[in-house]
Amino acid sequence: MTMEHGAHTSDHSDQWKTVSRTATATPIKALFMLKHQPEKMIELEETFWAVSDPKNARYGNHLTRDGVSDLLMPAEGNTETVAAWLKENGVKDISFPNVDMIEANMDAGLAESLLSTKFYDFQSLKKNSVLLRRIGEPYSLPSNIASVVQLVGNIARLPAIRGATIVPTSDEQMPTAWPAGCDKCSAEFVTPAVLGQRYGATDAWTIAAAKGNRMGTAEFQGQNWNQADLDTFGSSCHITQNVTVTKQVGPNKSGAGVESLLDLEYISGIARGIPLTNVYNSQYNLEDWAKQLAALTDDEIPLIMSVSYGNDEKQQKSTAFMEACNTQFMGFGARGVSILFASGDQGVYGRSGTGFLGKGPFNPDFPAASPYITAVGGTDFAAKGVIGDETAWKDGGGGFSNTFAIPSYQTDAVATYKTTAASSLPEQKLWNNTGRGYPDISALGGQVNPYGVFVSGRCEGVAGTSASCPVAAGVFALLNNVRLTAGGKPLGFLNPFIYQNAAAFQDVTSGDNRGSGKHGFTAVKGWDPATGVGTPNYDALSKLV
Helix 192-199 and helix 465-485: axis angle, to 10°? Predict the structure, then answer.
């Protein structure tokens, strides 16, 4: 039985080339994600919404890891059926990383036989050293196995190779009100001092981390970090708390990845002193990331998780894959974990669009367009070097999902936007009028004043929503600190709280996100698909949590 119709390599022909058929002895790690019990899925979703809604009596009553595992448990006997089939067909290395996952390590020859497909070696055109083994045609399973398996992960979908945008410096003289912030950085750079002033977080920097408060970042594709750069960032930016990773999940080769150092430096620069977990996987692989995160105990799992990676919805090929990811997102939210994803850096046209030609439909991002996570868009200061009003960054991702309907928490906000912005809306043929709108919030990420990131001892200018996301995550980590210090529960899934308290965010009402194309969504009063409800205001939000 064919699985995930059309799910083989992703639409990244401009980033990968086929090298050859994969040698039969090459190791393949396949992750069998099992189907769930329908009645348990209904209960999981009901629980997810209830514990995430400040207006619900169950708000904050999150489940334990065991409680979520009970809801994700496949029907009796299904795990054993798949495991027995794998063993009977020669797979000797089998593990069970989560109740709804079976990981099978085998050689490519056996994998091709089991999955009735062919594996190929694909080489990145951006990084020649990156080689992935992926199927070149759809895979299938025997009908009795296919009936209990949702999908097989780690074998399909070629990711975009992520790279933060390096911005040339001008050393332009800034207004005297612009804080120096970090030694050794260009005068024009955004620093923790700038962010603290704009987002009202400065007063929180002297407050001790509450017991149990934790935050996290996710890194992929060779984005390793080193303590020397974190130390230099901390000392140069006058951060008295140690800037370090408290818990590393997955390997770290002590490298100098711009993306990883951006994430770690700026979530730490905002949420000072809160223990930081870094989850690393060599591939951009949401299945493996979910496996790693789900394995953490209730005393280990970060309460805030910032992820600065994504692809377009159309590049996922399979709706089943996105639905499987959403199930994992719901599980994390039910446990009280806030998941934030960057909205992308290609404007409305996305990674697979033709915006530079001004043609073609918009391409929404995934996971940013998932209804079960918080999407973070990008802004610029309206005036360079002036800490004040912000404007939409033209390359910030945003728009409407082609896959997921408008969730109830944003129904009114989206309807109001379509009325308010009626005269400026792009042609209807370019976007889905019934889709989930994103981003939900935004933060500085553009190139008017780039971020100062310490990489290999130097302060580099960096831009992107991969900066916006950890900064927003850091603010929410501070808000969790307020709740936990007062004996409360973590915020968990953020979106109901965000839309119910939109007035506590700093509205962005200018600019658009057309990227390099002719069309985009315009920022207006209230929520919009360029900047969400606006950028954080810690002072205002801390009075509401």
Answer: 60
